């Protein structure tokens, strides 16, 4: 698969990096987009066949330039994973309304730009996958997600529109809802304490692995979805740890 290119936005130290490693492991050349230059340089040195592009996907002009650079350096992506996210955790009275527009631009408008730029080549090639990583904010609103959930809901509906348009053209679009906290390196032990809602039996020796989704496992799911047989494509793909209350 050394002719295959996977473009991933929002390549941080957790899910994005794990997805990059997973696709590279199967021979993909991986284009990694993120704002943190130092982290990208470390990942590029670690992952064979990867290339780093410093880019804020909320800057649509910068995004267009990065996409052009990916094409020139690696070729046309066969797989797009839109993992970048902008989020706000506050009620509608507490948060700055400007944050809503920023979140929408990163979460939703950037997806539109990415699809417009990359989908035509996928259609021409007769194959391709667009995978969007989301969370339960796309399905329900809670008070402190007032400026975040609307943008994720719009993102999911945009992805659904893309799926219904591109599916008959042999391009698979899917939305992966991660209904969990992700075991990210920056959490530290304090951030991995048992969630308040979880009240296991006294005999249960609780482990954070019971509740936190592991980045490598998320990456395996994303890779699987990108390679589903066309007779069994999925769109809404919800994943959660076994202990998650839902």
Please give the structural blueprint:
Blueprint: E1 5-9, H1 15-25, E2 29-34, H2 37-46, E3 50-54, H3 60-73, E4 79-82, H4 98-125, E5 129-134, H5 149-166, E6 172-178, H6 215-226, E7 236-239
Parallel strand pairs: 1-2, 1-4, 2-3, 4-5, 5-6, 6-7
What labels describe this entry?
single chain; 246 residues; alpha/beta; Rossmann fold; seven-stranded parallel beta sheet; 6 helices; 7 strands; 38% helix; 15% strand
Fold and architecture overview:
This protein is of the alpha/beta class. It has one domain (5-188, 206-239): NAD(P)-binding Rossmann-like Domain (Rossmann fold). The chain has six helices and seven strands. Strands 3-2-1-4-5-6-7 form a seven-stranded parallel sheet, sandwiched between helices. Helix 4 (98-125) links the parallel strand 4 and strand 5 (129-134). Helix 1 crosses helix 6, helix 3 packs parallel to helix 4 (98-125) and helix 4 runs parallel beside helix 5. The longest helix is centred in the middle third of the chain and has 28 residues, at 98-125. It is globular and about 50 Å long. The model has no long low-confidence stretch (mean pLDDT 91).
CATH superfamily: NAD(P)-binding Rossmann-like Domain
Q: So, CATH architecture?
A: 3-Layer(aba) Sandwich
Largest sheet: 7 strands, parallel
Low-confidence runs of at least 5 consecutive residues: none
Distance between the termini: 39 Å
Instruction: Tell me the strand percentage band.
Output: 15-25%
Write down the domain tally: 1
Mean pLDDT comes to: 91
The radius of gyration is 18 Å
Number of β-strand runs? 7
The side-by-side strand order for the widest beta sheet comes to: 3-2-1-4-5-6-7
Do you know the CATH topology? Rossmann fold
Instruction: Provide the succession of SSEs.
Output: EHEHEHEHEHEHE
């Amino acid at each position: 698969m050394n002719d295959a290119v996977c473009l991933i936005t929002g390549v941080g130290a957790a899910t994005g990096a794990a997805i990059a490693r997973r696709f590279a492991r199967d021979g993909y050349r991986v284009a990694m987009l993120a704002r943190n230059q130092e982290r990208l340089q470390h990942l590029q040195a670690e992952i064979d066949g990867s290339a780093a592009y410093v880019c804020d996907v909320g800057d649509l002009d910068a995004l267009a330039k990065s996409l052009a650079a990916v094409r020139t350096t690696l070729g046309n992506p066969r797989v797009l994973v839109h993992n970048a996210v902008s989020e706000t955790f506050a009620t509608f009275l507490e948060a700055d309304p400007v944050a809503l527009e920023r979140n929408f631009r990163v979460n939703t408008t950037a997806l539109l730009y990415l699809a417009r730029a990359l989908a035509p080549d996928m259609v021409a090639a007769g194959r391709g996958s667009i995978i969007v990583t989301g969370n339960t904010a796309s399905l329900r609103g809670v008070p402190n997600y007032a400026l975040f959930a609307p943008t994720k809901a719009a993102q999911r509906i945009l992805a659904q529109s893309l799926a219904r348009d591109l599916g008959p053209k042999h391009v698979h679009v899917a939305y992966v809802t991660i209904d969990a906290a992700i075991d990210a390196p920056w959490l530290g032990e304090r951030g991995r304490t048992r969630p308040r809602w979880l009240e296991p039996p006294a005999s249960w020796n609780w482990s954070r692995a019971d509740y936190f989704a592991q980045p490598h496992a998320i990456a395996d799911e994303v890779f699987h979805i990108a390679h589903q047989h066309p007779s069994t494509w999925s769109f809404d793909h919800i994943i959660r740890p076994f202990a998650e209350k839902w």
